[in-house]
Amino acid sequence: MRLLAVALLAGSALLAPTSPSSAATPDEPVKVTAPTPDSPVSGRLVPAVRGEAARAAAGSQVSAGVLKRGESLRAGRPEAAKPSDATTSDTTTITPWSGSLHVVWGAFPTVSSIGAQATHTVNPGISIPSGNPDVVYAPTLVPSGKTCIEVTTFYWQGGNGVGAWDWCAASPGFAAVAWIDSGFLSTYTTSFQGLPAYEVLDVQTNAVTNSWTAYLYNYTTSSWDALFTSADTAKLSETHGGWSMFEVYTEYNPSTGEGHYCTETYGTQYHAANLKIKLGSTWTPLTTSNSNVTPPGSVNSTDFGCYGLSFTLQTANSHWQVTH
């Protein structure tokens, strides 16, 4: 069923992006219509690498981090290292650690939904050099346990991309990867608080087959383009909530005294805004009554193996921001 859905969608896809002469520049994207879940679906695919090519493009380093918390997806929360694994009580000092430190922060729906929509900023200027073992997933979105697809913005030494991870595949992995290049920026982003940002819709399209499609909003056509489609009825029994979060796998860099990623991401911001979920036929923003912020309370930058990070809720809990 999953392969048939993808094949049908691919058959009607127009894969060529808007020509540079008609598209806005990355610095001045065109915003035709504000996207809603009911905005038109184009029938086109987001230009991306798919299938085994997507797995190869993302690489084992990026995929390993998602797989590492695969079992915790089924438990309803990702597994993260305790802050004490990397820090002391002195928040100005980072204690060296060995291996990969895994830490997360974000908004976690406490109800089971059948869809989510969000505005995700991107940082095309991040350039993580070869040999840097770290991966930043920010933001990464899972509507609920029922979903087949996780949509994540990732930054690593192999490049910066927006990927659809297929949790309903027999062997879960990246099924589509769209690189954050000039074509992506001019077609799928608009300006949000001075930053380029794309709009994502990850929604159940068939309740019987539990088919899900992740869409990105095309600002040049004012319609949703499909990133990936997948289905699996077995996931219907997973009734826990999902997440929208900032996630890092980082190793200690003795030359800087912090995580490897900290140097290359200095001066960046990550936003997940306008977060809403679909409950029945109703779309509702994330609030303190239907979601939690994890971990709760204040978060120290050093918990993430990095100096200078700040964590802000601009709107509880529908807009979180991480600034470096």
TrEMBL record:
Keyword Signal (UniProt): yes
Biased composition (Basic and acidic residues): 68-82
Coiled-coil residue windows: none
Originating species: Saccharothrix xinjiangensis
Biased composition (Low complexity): 17-26, 84-93
Keyword set includes rRNA-binding: no
UniProt region (Disordered), positions on chain: 17-44, 68-93
Protein's recorded name: Carbohydrate-binding protein
Keywords, comma-separated and alphabetical: Signal
Leader peptide range in chain numbering: 1-23
